């Protein structure tokens, strides 16, 4: 527990420096996190698929999304996704022994890690990025303590035996309250809408958590890595954020808050 706390505090300090530095420090860190996350994902599934170049296309996909942002090519997302799909399709045509399972595992990683995390780039210089971390991490925190004291009904015992329905509900309430308090304190417009967004964002972040658990179950591993002592790898720490990022981004755009 001591190692986990120390590691968490160091991680938080690094996060603060990155967020307040902005610019290339911010965007470069997101790219680094994405590439490490892809490496962890590919390593996890390497026993389930053949190690073909499809996996390496995910790295190129992540780099393309990075340059799309720094070059201000926001309108070219569709083209990048199209080229990514075409590249994978060409690989299927040229590599006779490539199976549909190989391609499916690889492309899922590209969307799950590279595409979802790329939404963080759009929050550069905005304090609204804290809503992502608040929703994801307050969900985890409140779910843990609510489940510890009041948990009776298992949520998904085949994936995460310790998670409970009561804990999940506590996570939703905790995330919503935390997001509203944040919005009121920093005088963010649309407090009611942000509260609603946090409720659904909490549910989606928990889906992200369970998705990461499902992948680990399929791959037969306990953690994706040990980059953060006591926390596992990047995907272990960012599992909820991966799903929360695009949801909160699109919600804020829909509400006209970004």
TrEMBL record:
<comment type="pathway">
    <text>Phospholipid metabolism; CDP-diacylglycerol biosynthesis; CDP-diacylglycerol from sn-glycerol 3-phosphate: step 3/3.</text>
</comment>
<feature type="transmembrane region" description="Helical">
    <location>
        <begin position="6"/>
        <end position="39"/>
    </location>
</feature>
<feature type="transmembrane region" description="Helical">
    <location>
        <begin position="51"/>
        <end position="70"/>
    </location>
</feature>
<keyword id="KW-0808">Transferase</keyword>
<dbReference type="Pfam" id="PF01148">
    <property type="entry name" value="CTP_transf_1"/>
</dbReference>
<dbReference type="GO" id="GO:0016024">
    <property type="term" value="P:CDP-diacylglycerol biosynthetic process"/>
</dbReference>
<dbReference type="GO" id="GO:0005886">
    <property type="term" value="C:plasma membrane"/>
</dbReference>
<keyword id="KW-0594">Phospholipid biosynthesis</keyword>
<dbReference type="GO" id="GO:0004605">
    <property type="term" value="F:phosphatidate cytidylyltransferase activity"/>
</dbReference>
<keyword id="KW-0548">Nucleotidyltransferase</keyword>
<comment type="similarity">
    <text>Belongs to the CDS family.</text>
</comment>
<keyword id="KW-1208">Phospholipid metabolism</keyword>
<feature type="transmembrane region" description="Helical">
    <location>
        <begin position="127"/>
        <end position="146"/>
    </location>
</feature>
<feature type="transmembrane region" description="Helical">
    <location>
        <begin position="167"/>
        <end position="186"/>
    </location>
</feature>
<protein>
    <recommendedName>
        <fullName>Phosphatidate cytidylyltransferase</fullName>
        <ecNumber>2.7.7.41</ecNumber>
    </recommendedName>
</protein>
<keyword id="KW-1133">Transmembrane helix</keyword>
<feature type="transmembrane region" description="Helical">
    <location>
        <begin position="76"/>
        <end position="94"/>
    </location>
</feature>
<feature type="transmembrane region" description="Helical">
    <location>
        <begin position="192"/>
        <end position="212"/>
    </location>
</feature>
<keyword id="KW-1003">Cell membrane</keyword>
<comment type="pathway">
    <text>Lipid metabolism.</text>
</comment>
<keyword id="KW-0444">Lipid biosynthesis</keyword>
<keyword id="KW-0472">Membrane</keyword>
<feature type="transmembrane region" description="Helical">
    <location>
        <begin position="103"/>
        <end position="121"/>
    </location>
</feature>
<keyword id="KW-0443">Lipid metabolism</keyword>
<keyword id="KW-0812">Transmembrane</keyword>
């Amino acid at each position: 527990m001591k190692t986990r706390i120390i590691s968490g505090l160091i991680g938080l300090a690094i996060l603060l420096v990155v967020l307040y530095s902005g610019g290339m420090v911010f965007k470069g860190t997101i790219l680094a996190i994405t590439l490490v996350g892809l490496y962890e994902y590919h390593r996890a599934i390497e026993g389930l698929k053949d190690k073909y170049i499809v996996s390496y296309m995910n790295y190129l996909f992540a780099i393309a999304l990075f340059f799309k942002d720094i070059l201000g090519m926001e309108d070219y997302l569709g083209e990048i996704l199209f080229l990514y799909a075409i590249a994978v399709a060409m690989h299927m045509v040229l590599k006779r022994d490539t199976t549909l399972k190989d391609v499916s595992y690889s492309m899922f990683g590209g969307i799950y890690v590279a595409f979802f995390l790329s939404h963080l780039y759009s929050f550069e210089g905005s304090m609204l990025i804290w809503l992502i971390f608040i929703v994801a991490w307050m969900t985890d925190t409140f779910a843990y303590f609510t489940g510890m004291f009041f948990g009776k009904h298992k949520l998904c015992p085949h994936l995460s035996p310790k998670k409970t329905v009561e804990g999940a509900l506590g996570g939703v309430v905790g995330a919503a309250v935390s997001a509203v308090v944040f919005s009121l304190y920093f005088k963010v417009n649309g407090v009611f809408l942000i509260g609603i967004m946090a409720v659904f964002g909490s549910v989606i972040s928990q889906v992200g958590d369970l998705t990461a658990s499902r992948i680990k179950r399929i791959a037969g591993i306990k953690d994706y890595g040990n980059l953060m002592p006591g926390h596992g790898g990047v995907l272990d720490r960012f599992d909820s954020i991966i799903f929360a990022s695009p949801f909160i981004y699109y919600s804020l755009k829909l509400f006209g808050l970004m």
